[in-house]
Write a structure and sequence with these properties.
Elements (H helix, E strand, L loop, with lengths): L1 E5 L6 H11 L4 E2 L2 E3 L13 E3 L2 H9 L3 E7 L2 E6 H5 L6 E4 L2 H9 L5 E7 L3 H11 L4 H14 L8 E4 L3 H16 L2 H21 L1
Parallel strand pairs: 1-7, 1-8, 2-7, 3-4, 8-9
Antiparallel strand pairs: 3-6, 5-6
Helix pairs in contact: 1-7, 5-6
Bound molecules: guanosine-5'-monophosphate.
Length: 204
């Protein structure tokens, strides 16, 4: 499964993804490349691959990305190398709307798109303020951007309104659980069941 999680800055996406992956270590986080400088506590190669703009441009030219976008003035992208991991393990992508759109265009059967919404504008404003690291101008920019981004909700298979983290987390888990029971993802197990019947009838 390729779980694409998107939502405006301040909707609580990162917190939710972290908590989800803690509970589901069998799923892996897709580590993006970015030109944004690391925040305190962020680890290169774990949170992001932190690269220079020159390096990012070189990778774009090399067609090394499945998707990339400019978000809040910095480059962000998912490398083909990282994306390939989804062939062997369930991968979680934390990307913006522009990136989700590009992944959607690939029309991959295994991709599941979730959009995280804040309960309303006020709560988003409060959350952005509570972060404490954003200047008033930047907060306004993010609010404006959120207003545009949320118009894209229809591109997503599921929408979660993140009022309470615990509940939103349960909702992501419910989605993943249900998605894992789709015929497409059950195929191996179904075939094993069918094969067991075949073997028995041949023996008779
Ligand atoms: P932040 O700098 O706060 O970690 O992330 C800013 C925004 O960039 C978030 O909306 C996040 O989802 C998005 N983002 C992170 N990695 C990628 C990526 O690889 N591609 C795209 N398109 N967006 C990304």
């Amino acid at each position: 499964m390729l779980l694409v999680i998107t939502g405006p800055s301040g909707a609580g996406k990162t917190t939710l993804i972290r908590a989800f992956l803690e509970r589901h270590p069998e799923m892996k986080f897709s580590v993006s490349h970015t030109t944004r400088p690391p925040r305190p506590g962020e680890v290169d190669g774990l949170d992001y691959h932190f690269v220079s703009e020159a390096e990012f441009s070189r990778l774009i030219k090399k067609k090394a990305f499945v998707e990339w976008a400019i978000v809040h003035g910095y480059y962000y992208g998912t490398s083909k190398k990282e994306f390939k991991k989804s062939q062997s393990v369930d991968l979680v992508l934390d990307i913006d709307v522009q990136g989700a759109r590009q992944v959607k265009e690939l029309a991959l059967k295994e991709a599941v798109f979730i959009f995280i919404l804040p309960p309303n504008r006020e709560s988003l404003e409060k959350r952005l303020l509570a972060r404490g690291d954003l200047a008033a101008e930047e907060r306004q920019r993010r609010l404006q951007r959120a207003k545009q981004e949320i118009k894209n909700y229809h591109l997503f298979d599921y929408v979660i309104i993140n009022e309470k983290v615990d509940q939103a987390l349960e909702e992501i888990e419910a989605i993943v659980k249900a998605e894992n029971r789709r015929q497409l993802r059950m195929r191996k197990k179904i075939l094993a069941v069918l094969a067991s019947f075949k073997a028995k009838s041949q023996g008779r």
